[in-house]
From TrEMBL:
It comes from the Eukaryota. PANTHER family: MARVEL DOMAIN-CONTAINING PROTEIN (PTHR22776:SF49), MARVEL-CONTAINING POTENTIAL LIPID RAFT-ASSOCIATED PROTEIN (PTHR22776). This is Uncharacterized protein. GO terms for cellular component: membrane.
Length: 165
C-alpha cells in the first residue's frame, strides 16, 4: 500500500513535501552550526564533548534518512513497491528519529549550560575564537524548529496510515 502519498511534482507541492524540504534545511542548519563549533573547538578533550559528537552523528543520520524518504516519495518509488505501507513505515521511523533527536538535543542543551557555568563561553568570547557558544544555541533553536516539523509530518503520516487502506 502506498499510504495515500502522491509522488513527483504533486509531492513537492503538497504540505508533506514542503515540510520535508524544511526539515532537511533545518537539519543542515543544526549540523552546520554545531559542526562549525566542533570543528573550531580547541578544547576537544573537555567533559561533555561526547554529547556534541552524538548530536552531530544523530542529526546527520536523521538528515540522511529524511533525504532518503523525500527521494522515495518524490520519485514515486512508494507507488511501485505496493506491498509496503510507506505511511506506516515513515511514521514509525520518524517517531524513532524524533525521540532520538529530542534526547540528543537535551544532551546538547546540557553541554551548553555546562560550558556557560564553567565560564568556557566567556573565555571563547574574550579570545575571539571561531567557536562560540552562540553556535550551539543556534543548533538547539534549529533543532526545536525541526522537531515541530517532525511532529507535523508525523500527524500527516499517521493520517495516511489510518485512513488509507
Amino acid at each position: 500500500m502506498a499510504g495515500g502519498i502522491n509522488g513527483g511534482v504533486q509531492y513537492l507541492k503538497s504540505a508533506p513535501g514542503v515540510l520535508k524540504i524544511l526539515e532537511i534545511i533545518l537539519q543542515l542548519a543544526c549540523v552546520g552550526s554545531v559542526g562549525y563549533f566542533w570543528d573550531h573547538w580547541a578544547w576537544k578533550d573537555l567533559v561533555k564533548n561526547d554529547y556534541i559528537k552524538v548530536f552531530l552523528w544523530s542529526t546527520a543520520a536523521s538528515g540522511i534518512i529524511t533525504l532518503l524518504f523525500f527521494l522515495i516519495f518524490l520519485i514515486g518509488l512508494h507507488k511501485k513497491i505496493k506491498f509496503l505501507n510507506w505511511a506506516k513505515i515513515a511514521a514509525a521511523i520518524f517517531i524513532l528519529l524524533a525521540s532520538l533527536l529530542f534526547v540528543v538535543s537535551g544532551l546538547l542543551a546540557n553541554t551548553l549550560i555546562y560550558y556557560k557555568d564553567k565560564e568556557h563561553c566567556n573565555a571563547l568570547e574574550l579570545s575571539d575564537a571561531d567557536s562560540q557558544c552562540k553556535q550551539l544555541t543556534a543548533g538547539i533553536v534549529s533543532f526545536l524548529l525541526n522537531f515541530f516539523t517532525f511532529l507535523s509530518l508525523l500527524r500527516y503520516h499517521f493520517a495516511c496510515a489510518i485512513y488509507v487502506d
